[in-house]
Amino acid sequence: MNITFEKTGNVTGVLTLNIEKADYEANVKKGLQTAQKKVQMPGFRPGHVPAGMVKKMYGTQIKAEEVQKLISEKLYAYIQENNLDVLGEPIAHDDHVDIEKDDNFVLHFDLGLSPEMNVELSSNDTVDYYDINVTEEMVDAQVKRMAQQAGHPENVQTYEERDILRGILAQLDENGQPVEGGIVVESASLMPTYFKNDEQKALFNGAKVNDILVINPSKAYEGNEAEVSSLLKVKKEEVAQYTGDFSFQVNEISRFVPAEINQEFFNAVFGEGAVEGEEAFRAKVKEGIQAQHVLDSDYKFLLDLRAYCEAKVGEVEFPNEVLKKVMLNNNKEKGEAYVEEHFEASINELKWHLIKEKLVKANDIKLEQADVKAAAVEAARMQFAQYGMNNVPVEYLENYAEEMLKNKQQAQSLIERSIETKLVAALKNVLNLNHKAVSAEEFGKLFEN
């Protein structure tokens, strides 16, 4: 087989494959021999169907398969051996091949090539880096959240906002008497804080256990079918029938009480003996907030780095027509309109991807399996921390991380995250960082646009 490559532009080229019968004939014969052993036909013993009949039945199919295998093998081998930096995949021309009649083929493939770009960075390059101040108020708020997450429900005698009331809900007639055969919910739960009607909400002010109140669920929830049907245990389409009053006998008032700020609480959050006393506990909390803010600052730094690099590289020529065909091939069911709508965003992401690849190579960044595993463990730790679980055993985190890595999409995301984490760490030591101290509020405003 003869393969030639000709550049047709700065970032485009055409690969031409000249395939002759001798290139694939031996493999076709082997394929026919294998088929002959498997073919079953009335009047012939298995494996003894005449070769001519097998060729007539399967010759074209086997020929097409072997030619396709040959094209794929030689095409990508040529690209690799000649260090062609191809974007996407080769796009075949419509060369009108007659696989049944022709023995020799000339095939053409359009290639999109990666553009040349200079992304060298040094201490002469300056990028902003935001250091977020951690205040005592932030520590107070975090401690409060932790105490709330570690809290417990407790029965009380008098209602306060956000309490849950449990009791018997019974339908009343226009005279305020129980409706015979009407709705009675023996174990109804109410949280007046979430009533939409303020007058109905105010009925519970100062309510005590054993009080009997008259409420109107339809007014309380302003006719919301989902809320009313859930409370009255009726179908949504029946809610409109129940717009009158109900009595509610308060049997229990439950209040969620935050955990006490004591050594038992400290142990529950960080583990037995990890911190001793409130001062050490607050210092540990502050350390955690600072660590999270470093991640936030690194994320903003990566965004600013991207913008800086893209501006430094400037306009880049891409093989747009080839890439549009590649995108269409990968989204056939969505059509050309989808490609046109999303192509510019796709090119922007591709530009950053190529820049990032060059930065990774220039800084000799290597990714090990241990890096990805560590990223998965950290992702698992952060997920549990969102629910106030700050003391999850390492073994459990590692098992959870293993499950995450079994998901291809999650695994790829963690690989990208690991690369970016290493890249940020490396470039923070290369670039001239313009440190800016900001409050958490000021930092948040940086993302408003």
Would you kindly provide a written description of the structure presented here, covering whatever features stand out?
With 449 residues, the chain is of the alpha+beta class. The chain is built from 14 helices and 11 strands. It has helices spanning 21-38, 51-81, 136-149, 198-202, 217-220, 225-232, 263-270, 278-313, 320-330, 335-362, 369-385, 394-406, 408-427, 440-445, and strands spanning 2-7, 12-19, 86-92, 105-113, 126-132, 152-156, 164-171, 184-190, 212-215, 246-257, 432-438. The strands form 3 sheets. Strands 6, 7, 8, 9 and 10 form a 5-stranded antiparallel sheet that branches. Strands 1-2-4-3 form a 4-stranded antiparallel sheet, sandwiched between helices. Strand 1 (2-7) and strand 2 form a beta hairpin.
**Shape type:** extended
The helix count comes to 14
Give the tally of structural domains: 3
Q: What fraction strand?
A: 15-25%
> Uncertain regions: pLDDT < 50 for 5+ in a row?
none
Number of strands: 11
Distance between the termini: 56 Å
For the CA atoms, what is the radius of gyration? 35 Å
Structural category is alpha+beta
Q: Provide the succession of SSEs.
A: EEHHEEEHEEEHEHHEHHHHHHHEH
CATH class of the largest domain: Mainly Alpha
Calculate the mean pLDDT score and round it.
92
The name of the CATH architecture of the largest domain is Orthogonal Bundle
